[in-house]
Amino acid sequence: MKEEKTMLKIITLGDSNVGKTSLFYHYVNGEYRYNRPPSIGPDYFIKELKVENKHVFLMVWDTCGQERFQAFSPPYFRGANCYTLCFDIHNEESFINLGKWMDEIIKYCYGNIPFVLVGTKSDIPRTDKSISKARIEQWCKNIEDQGIIDKVHYFETSAKLSQNVTELYNVAAKLALEHYSIVKYISIIRPIGPPEEVKVGTCC
Ligand SMILES: Nc1nc2c(ncn2[C@@H]2O[C@H](COP(=O)(O)OP(=O)(O)OP(=O)(O)O)[C@@H](O)[C@H]2O)c(=O)[nH]1
To answer: Whose C-alpha lies nearest to ligand 1, atom 13?
Structure first.
């Protein structure tokens, strides 16, 4: 029998300049690109891989963190199986704005929200102004305590030094497959249409 092919959608989110495109570019091309112009719109690529012995197509979306993109972003938030939520570990504002990005994700999801938290630019040594590991752990714990997700998966990455880039996308792919299976299961057991509060099909 022909193996069923599964398309999983992963969306990269976070403030402008945190290094989203550099991560995305590194994952696609296996290298760091210096002097890249800022993103002017969303971009994506599709990669074929095996996740837990299942043949899947990973559709990874890069977005730009600018306000003008956020104003038009809802179509890109929808239909995701996992989000990679990025902040720069040396940029306080990008860490504080994680709450804003979470609010956006929550609008389009229900149940356990599949996301991976990514602290970027780990090749730059931490200073007093950087976000401490203790603060990041506290942020993860708050999210877990609110029941938004059972366990936050956190990676500190460097696109520049190739640290944790593949690892983060491997975990995102695994979470995306789990989410895909749950949504598929719900749509099978509720074929006539979901009750209003479940909103299958309009969420991630
Ligand atoms: N040291 C270091 N710098 C990085 C790393 N990743 C990205 N940068 C730098 O951070 C800046 C922003 O990187 P981008 O990948 O363009 O950031 P972005 O989040 O996609 O920005 P927008 O497209 O505006 O949303 C660039 O100058 C990169 O060279 C990293 O791992 N280490």
So the answer is: 19
How many angstroms does the Cα of residue 89 sit away from the middle of ligand 1? 12
With 0.90 as the threshold, say if the pTM is over it.
no
How remote is the C-alpha of 34 from its chain's centroid? Answer: 23
Contact 172, 61 (CB under 8 A): no
CA of 124, closest atom in ligand 1: 1
pLDDT of residue 202: 40
Could you say which architecture CATH assigns to the domain 6-189?
3-Layer(aba) Sandwich (3.40)
Pocket-forming residues, ligand 1, beta carbon under 6 Å:
16-22, 36, 38-39, 64-66, 120-121, 123-124, 158-160
Quick check: 5 pLDDT over 60? yes
Residues 6+ apart with CB under 8 A from 163: 122, 123, 156, 157
C-alpha pair distances (Å), 78 with each of 30, 114, 121, 177, 201? 28, 13, 28, 16, 9
Can you spell out the DSSP letters for 137-150?
HHHHHHHHHTTS-S
ipTM associated with this complex: 0.98
